[in-house]
Structures are given as structure tokens and as C-alpha cells.
Write a structure and sequence with these properties.
This protein is an all-beta fold and about 240 residues long. The protein has no helices and 19 strands. It has an eight-stranded antiparallel beta sheet with strand order 17-16-15-12-13-14-18-19, with no helix packed on it. The two termini are about 25 Å apart.
């Protein structure tokens, strides 16, 4: 989160997560960076409802820490109605295990306002983990939504459309007053982009991404390049 008026910002990076309650031992989750989902395959002893907890470790960054070494912090999730949310301590979360045998647990964080936990039948192909440096979507979307959370809920500011066939470049205009806490959303691939903490012009879907912001007032033209993972805006 960035507050341009107060010259403050904060970012939370999740390093590791594990889930307890599905088996006799805790299960380590692996991050699928392209979709911002934490997943693990396990063997269920029976179908039915389970009460689980999710916690882990991360690093908190802000204007005082800079982008160097963050402050180590515990990560925990708790039930928040039908969804889950970050919490000070891990709370009980209820999930339904569909069958005995191989299953996959999935913590979906791609939409910050709609985080969910689910268990599905069968084993999912787990990501290799680590930063591959590759964030290009498998399928180029028909459009990109530019959204903000500055009002406390998702507001679509404008929609970007391709400039040419298979180019991966999208553009659009925006002239509203909301200028911060912005993400660029690829609905087709369920990817939410902010900017890289080390390079504002680079798109990032990683946990430590910053929210995008616009300086000044008046109309701007936004351009997003999903091939080179860059974005920029110019005053009209």
C-alpha cells in the first residue's frame, strides 16, 4: 500500500505457509506465482468436513526498512464470512474434503478482497516454486481492468484494450480522481498486477508487489505490455 500524500508505503511478502488439520502432520504449501495461489497435494483418510488452520512466515517492508531486509513477521489466516483473511493469530477455517485418497488444498490469494480456501479431488501439478522471472500469461486476455481499493472495495476505474492482434500491448484512458491503491487485473488468467518494488515501470504479480499509483490530476493514457511485463502512463 502506498500513501503518496504522507510519503508512506508498506508491503507484505509471504515466504512460507503451511496448513494443519488435513492430516496428522502439517502440510507445506507451494506458491503458484502466475495465479498467486498456494497449493499442496495430500492423502485424505476420508471425505467430510475438516477444521484447519493456516500460518507461516513473511517479511514486512515499509518506508523505514526500504527494499532491503524486511522485518520478519508471522503470517496467519482466519475465516472472514465465506472467505479468509490475514489475521493476528490463525483461526479455525472449515473446508470440505471431497473424497478419501489424493486431494489438493488450495489457498487462492489472487483477489485480495476475496481470498478463499478449498479442497478438490485429485492431485494438482505443483509449481516448481521460486522466482522463475516469467510472468507472461498463458493466454492473452481480451481486455484488462484497472481497479482501485482506495474506497475499501474494488472499483473499476477503466478498461484497457489491445492495440493490435497478438501484440500483448493494451491501452486506455482515465480521468477520475482516484489515483492510488491500483491493480491491473487480467480476468482471463486470474492475475492481479501491481508494480515491482525495485522498478515502478515493471509489472509484478508477486506477493511483495506494490500497488500502482498515478501522480497529478487530469486525464492520463495507460499502456500495459504483457509481453515485456511493463506499464506506464502519460498525461493527456
Amino acid at each position: 500500500m502506498v500513501n503518496t500524500q504522507a510519503a508512506e508505503w508498506s508491503a507484505l511478502h509471504i515466504s512460507s505457509l503451511s496448513v494443519s488439520g488435513l492430516t496428522s502432520e502439517s502440510i507445506d504449501l507451494t506458491l503458484d506465482q502466475a495465479t498467486n495461489q498456494w497449493v499442496a497435494t495430500f492423502t485424505a483418510d476420508a471425505a467430510g468436513s475438516r477444521t484447519i488452520t493456516i500460518n507461516g512466515q513473511g517479511e514486512q517492508y515499509n518506508v523505514e526498512t526500504g527494499d532491503g531486509s524486511g522485518t520478519a513477521t508471522g503470517i496467519a489466516f482466519a475465516a472472514d464470512g465465506e472467505h479468509v483473511a490475514l489475521a493476528e493469530t490463525a483461526g479455525n477455517i472449515t473446508v470440505d474434503v471431497p473424497q478419501a485418497g489424493e486431494c489438493t488444498v488450495r489457498l487462492n490469494l489472487y483477489d485480495p478482497t476475496n481470498c478463499t480456501v478449498s479442497v478438490e479431488a485429485g492431485a494438482a501439478e505443483l509449481p516448481g516454486g521460486g522466482d522463475s522471472g516469467e510472468e507472461t500469461p498463458v493466454t492473452l486476455p481480451e481486455s484488462l481492468d484497472v481497479v482501485s481499493y482506495s474506497t475499501g472495495s474494488e472499483v473499476i476505474l477503466t478498461t484497457l484494450y489491445p492495440t493490435g492482434s497478438e501484440s500483448g500491448v493494451y491501452t486506455g484512458t482515465y480521468s477520475g480522481e482516484v489515483r492510488d491503491q491500483i491493480n491491473i487485473v487480467d480476468r482471463t488468467n486470474s492475475v492481479w498486477y501491481g508494480c515491482d518494488p525495485d522498478e515502478n515501470s515493471q509489472l509484478s504479480s508477486q506477493d511483495d508487489k506494490w500497488n500502482i499509483w498515478f501522480d497529478g490530476t487530469g486525464a492520463v493514457t495507460l499502456t500495459v505490455d504483457l509481453t515485456n511485463m511493463t506499464w506506464n502512463y502519460t498525461a493527456n
